[in-house]
Design the sequence.
């Protein structure tokens, strides 16, 4: 054992509990003379609970037979107070420790026994051994806590790397027809805002914020001649264009990640319409998953306000009017009203992530 560990043991906090002052004075003298620097002695066992809460002792030397409160009662009180995973050494001091008392003491958490009158050397050996175990327990607990922090930090870093990959994947598709790629940041932040306003829980809000940037990942498979065409698409071109919803869902399928699973749902359903006239599956009403309905409003709102190779940006007023007109047709009417009631917050998001 190193000197550092030994020094730590001698600095351990020790509480001596005995109703007779002569006994506590003797034990305190023995411990002080051996180098223990944090010894507290009390003659009233009723004080143990409050003192231990305040000081969290490393060792308690406890007499059993005391008039104010029996040692068994003290140990039971400590057992109820202490974390079951904690290790608090209690050494029972008694002049007549019969088998029944010994068994009850062990049941209530006693770690060692010492008969009265106390032998000086035996006391010191037993105290040192118990404190050594206590110190090793505290070091192990400290290492476990540090390891837990390290694992949490590494997990957080891995998760952030994963999320950054997802964001980049979403922006990669957006760069096909939007040179800044800021649409996905605005749209996903609006999705989180609308989810919060709708009363969705924090986990859902986080998931939709991370997953919604992948809503148009299927554009990767759309030919430039169609995606960037400045005029109206021909019917056969529009059929090809619409395939990006299913293609995007296929790209994100078969993943165990919650983000990817929601991303797949959003990619597949964000072009469905409340009245059933959308694509790819003609879903209607609440058959459209809530994440798809939220993404639909936020995507259209930002897309209309943004310039594209094939269109100019719309002003805010007609954009808001269109969402109002399409409530109950294109959009979930409840979500649309919540969105319209919070237009200033959505505009602030656009300004926060303005195109460079």
Sequence:
């Amino acid at each position: 054992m190193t000197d550092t560990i030994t020094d730590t043991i001698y600095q351990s906090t020790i509480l001596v509990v005995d109703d007779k002052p002569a006994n506590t004075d003797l034990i305190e003298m023995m411990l002080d003379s051996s180098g223990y620097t944090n010894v507290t002695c009390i003659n009233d066992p009723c004080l143990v609970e409050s003192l231990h809460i305040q000081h969290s002792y490393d060792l308690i030397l406890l007499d059993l037979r005391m008039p104010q409160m029996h040692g068994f009662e003290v140990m039971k009180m400590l057992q109820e107070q202490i974390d079951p995973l904690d290790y608090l050494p209690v050494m029972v001091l008694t002049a007549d420790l019969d088998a029944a008392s010994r068994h009850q003491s062990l049941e209530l958490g006693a770690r060692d026994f010492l008969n009265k009158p106390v032998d000086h050397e035996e006391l010191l050996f037993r105290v040192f051994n118990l404190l050594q175990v206590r110190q090793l327990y505290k070091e192990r607990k400290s290492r476990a806590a540090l390891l837990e922090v390290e694992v949490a930090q590494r997990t957080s870093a891995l998760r952030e790397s994963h999320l950054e990959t997802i964001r980049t994947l979403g922006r990669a598709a957006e760069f096909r027809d939007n040179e800044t790629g800021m649409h996905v940041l605005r749209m996903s932040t609006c999705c989180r805002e609308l989810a919060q306003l709708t009363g969705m829980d924090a986990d859902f809000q986080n998931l939709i914020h991370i997953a919604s940037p992948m809503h148009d990942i299927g554009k990767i498979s759309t030919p430039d001649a169609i995606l960037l065409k400045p005029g109206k698409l021909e019917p056969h071109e529009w059929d090809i264009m619409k395939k990006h919803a299913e293609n995007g869902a296929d790209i994100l399928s078969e993943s165990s990640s919650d983000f990817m699973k929601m991303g797949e749902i959003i990619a597949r359903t964000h072009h469905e319409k409340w009245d059933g006239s959308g694509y790819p599956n003609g879903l209607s009403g609440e058959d459209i998953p809530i994440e798809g309905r939220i993404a639909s409003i936020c995507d259209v709102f930002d897309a209309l306000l943004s310039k594209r190779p094939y269109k100019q940006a719309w002003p805010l007023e007609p954009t808001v009017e269109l969402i109002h007109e399409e409530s109950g047709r294109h959009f979930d009417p409840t979500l649309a009203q919540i969105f319209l009631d919070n237009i200033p917050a959505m505009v602030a998001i656009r300004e926060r992530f303005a195109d460079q």
Summary: The chain has 15 helices and five strands. The longest strand covers residues 13-17. The radius of gyration is 35 Å. Residues 120-174 form the longest helix (55 residues).
